[in-house]
Structures are given as C-alpha cells and as structure tokens.
Amino acid sequence: MNAPEKLPASPDPHVMQTYGRLPFALSHGQGCWVWDTEGRKYLDGLGGIAVNTLGHAHPRLVPALQEQIGKLIHSSNYYHVPLQEQLAAKLCELSGLSKVFFCSTGLEANEAAIKIARKFGHDKGIERPEIVVYERAFHGRSIATLSATGNPKVQAGFGPLVEGFPRVPLNDVPAIEKLAATNPNIVAVFLEVIQGEGGINPATVDYLRAVRKLCDERGWLLMLDEVQCGLGRTGKWFAHQWAGIRPDVMPLAKGLGSGVPVGAVVCGPRAADVFGPGNHGTTFGGNPLAMRAGVETLRIMEEDGLLENAARVGGQLKEALQRELGGVAGVVEVRGQGLMLGIELARPCGELLGRAAQAGLLLSVTADKVIRLVPSLILSADEAAQMVAILVPLVKAFLAEKPQS
Ligand SMILES: Cc1ncc(COP(=O)(O)O)c(C=O)c1O
Quick check: CB of 238 below 6 Å from ligand 1? Predict the structure, then answer.
C-alpha cells in the first residue's frame, strides 16, 4: 500500500477549498519519479498536469535556473528583456509564426487570444465580434475563458457569462459551415487540437484542414489552444503540425517552462500586429527567470530528442493499454497521441485517482470517466511498461466491482 486511503479530517483552515486533494504532499522528485513527505515513492504519470516537460530535478535545467536566479529573477517590461527576444525567436522558428506575447499561465494566454480576436474584429469595423468555440472545450477559469469553455460545471455560479461565443460540436464541419452562413459577426475560431480537460478528444486532421480553409475564405483568425497538447507532447512541436496547417494565433503555457510558470501567445502575420502599445500587458509575463526556463526547456528537448521520445514511448504506452484493456467490458476507448493519452471508461472513475496513488502511480481523471496520462516527455519505455503494470489491474478490478449508486 502506498498513499494513505482517507482524506484528513480537518482541511487546512487558511487555504481556500478550491481543490479536491489527495491526503499527501510531494516533497521531491527525480526524473519521472516523486516521493511524498512520508517517503513513499510514485511513478509520475501526471507530470504536474502536462507541465513538467523535463521531469523533476533535471540535471541541466536546475543549474541553469540556479544561475539565472543568482543574476536576475525579474526586471520589468519597462526594459528590453533579451531572453524574451531569444525565446520568441525560437518559438517563431519552431512554429513558422511571427510574433509572441508572453504571460504566465494558460488562461492568460487565452485571454490575450480572445482580446486579439475582438480587436481584429473591431479593426475591420465589426462592432460585436464573435468567436466560435466548442462543446467540451476547456480554456481556463477567468470570466472570459470560462465563458469560452464548454463545460457547464466550470461555468455554474459565475454568470452572467461573457457574450459572443457561439458554440459548435467538435469535428462537425456542417455545423460550423451553417454558423458561418448565418452569423456575420464571427471573427475567429478557437479550439484545442486535442481537448484535454474535456476528455482527450482529438480534432481530426480533416476537420483542422476544413476549419483552416473556412478561416481563410472568411478572413477569420484560426486560434489553436495548444496550452496542454503543444510543446512536443504529441511528438511534434505543436499538435496542429500533424495536419500540416498553421494557426493565426496559438496560446501556449504548461510545458513551456518545465514547471516555471510561462505562458505565450504566438501569432502569425494576420494577428501579429493587432495589439499596439498600451493594448495589453502583464507584470510577470516574460520575466528573465521564466524566459530562461523556456529557453532551456526547448534547448534540452531538442538536444535530447524528446519529440521522438514522446512519439515512440507514447506509441508503446498506447499500444500496451489498447492490448491489455481493449476487450475489457467497461472500457470504451484508449485514445490520444504521443504522451497525451486517455482511457475512457463506461462509468465515472474519479476514485481511481486515490487508488492509483496507493498503488504508486500518479495520474488524473478528467471529464468524470477518462483516465488521463500526461507524463514528462523523458518517460522511458521501461517506465511506460511499469505504468501499464500498475494501471491495468487497477482498472480491471474497478470495472469488476458493482458501481456504487
Ligand atoms: C487547453 C487548456 N487551455 C487553458 C488552460 C488553462 O491554463 P491555466 O490553468 O494555466 O490557466 C488549460 C488548463 O488545463 C488547458 O488545458
């Protein structure tokens, strides 16, 4: 038995109860392994929810960040930040896009994208610009990004929501064409290439190409939220690259700083100059520590072939899960790409979070019924096999039980 089974009787009185937490705290990590404060060891299938690109305590990232902390953590956007210029140039090289705005989180990157789309519309003379969004999407928890999110649970209690987000189902070309034909105020389409929080739901290559074409025909912005699926996770730098298309606006965050908060909005020529001086800003965004984390993360990913690793080990992991769980009653589907995988079960399975931790594996459950694995991109084939060896018996045992009513 690994983690304790019961939640502590009295949650901390001073921390807001916004999360359902498991009853242990992590103290340190090494590669894809973490230890809690009681000395129990876990294989990390969660990677800080797709954040710890390079795993824990990476031997080349840690000294680089220590050096940066000793020099300059934060300056201000009153001044040039050479590391910002360096990271922006790298992101443009990798994406084929042209300009970047830096912030600190995914929702901030998405807020910036929404503002760009609205101003893009106003600049064209559209007074009430609207942005097409998706069922089951997740874009963050600020008022605007939760309004764009397609999950009533996230929105409940926070109305009135921000208007101007007509919603369509994913991978349904006629639905968006119908909307295009009837709504003259649309200025952008905003979607995750693989929906993460919504249950690991990939947009198909054909759908992405069709939406790119529609955006070109209509003069809309294609805005691809790659906060979770981007930065090597699927085996390409950005998940949309599998479809051979380019977005006009691409929000990033999570994996970019390998644990240091870094967000970015990367824009192509149609959107790159929409913001002018005074239109947008943030205190922390693009600070030297964050930028150094981004520069070093991308450098190490390249040097160590982590895209290839994500594709190869992710492929092996998916194959093994499909082989072991494919025919099991109650398993709906194993899906996803690279190291962004979901196992959909026929019934809610939130309790597997605690059971997996007890068995020494960290993972998440999203959209109630989908077990999600988003480990670090350094995961080895042997570690992937260990993950399967822990997870498969847990899922089988869970499905063999009578559902609690
Ligand atoms: C696709 C996507 N966009 C945006 C966000 C919000 O990012 P953050 O939690 O950093 O605000 C998330 C977080 O899970 C996400 O998965």
Answer: no
